[in-house]
Amino acid sequence: AKAEGRNGFQCYTRDMGLQALQRVELQSALRLAVEHDQFELHYQPQVAPESGRIVAVEALLRWRHPVLGNVSPDRFIPLAEETGLIAPIGRWVLRSAGRQLQAWHAAGHTRLVMAVNLSARQFITQDIPQLVRETLELCGLPPQALELELTETALMHNAESVHATLSTLKAIGVLLALDDFGTGYSSLNHLRRFPIDTIKIDKSFTAEIATSDDTAAIVRAIVEMAGSLGVEIVAEGVEHEQQLRLLAALHCHRVQGYHIGRPMPAAELAPLLGVPDEP
Ligand code: C2E
Ligand code: CA
Ligand code: CA
Ligand code: CA
């Protein structure tokens, strides 16, 4: 809380100092996290509403530090971006997710798709297409098994080189998803300019779909638009049965959220994958 009066300034600077200290501490801890094996991927199911089958999973990064405990990605991903550490972390994420998908494909879930988050900074500092090619080859995966989730921030920065990168990724054959759709400044513009396969409707829309007629109308319009563009729709943040029913009625392709399944370790997700696909 904001302190008042004569001591206000003091309190303020002390808080700032504390924050800066935590940042520095967090930053040096983050530097060691890959080597010290402190990262883990959790997987959250994306389900086709009609069949109830898991058609894709989103890989979500978890950092367990021995002293700091579990640090939320919302805290350490921005820090990793600022410091450039996102490059080695991103490489670890893609490879680990690739190896896990390879195992699930080998177990007969050959149509399962793995969605991996990429952050804005990775597009500038890393040769993403090369990294993707290496991962697919290393894991013997077909390109359409991998879906890369991008945010609008990633597309905004350096639009020209990003466009070239996305075209290369498209040529490789991986799927491109636009994350947090509807929250940015120019979602529609991005949809028009970039070769997007999938739209992820932001969870702030899902949260209101059952309680606000306006939000429901917007979601319906997004789904219809996606249909005419030949783009798949994923709704994220599904927390209630009512939301699920509405999204199913709109023929949303995939639903994701706590109501369907939380992000979980691979061993917990495996039994939920159901019977293997027909060969
Ligand atoms: P995101 O990509 O938008 O991921 C969705 C977030 O919503 C995840 O938080 C997920 O656990 C959470 N979530 C899932 N279902 C529900 C629900 O029903 N209700 C609510 N309220 N939340 C739900 P998480 O795992 O804490 O990740 C936060 C953000 O960190 C992600 O947002 C993504 O931007 C970033 N992130 C996570 N893993 C990675 C990664 O490997 N690489 C990069 N670059 N970013 C990552
Ligand atoms: Ca995501
Ligand atoms: Ca999202
Ligand atoms: Ca987000």
UniProtKB/TrEMBL annotation:
Q: Where is the EAL domain?
A: 23-277
According to UniProt, the name of this protein is: EAL domain-containing protein
- Interval of the full protein contained in this chain: 315 to 593 of 612
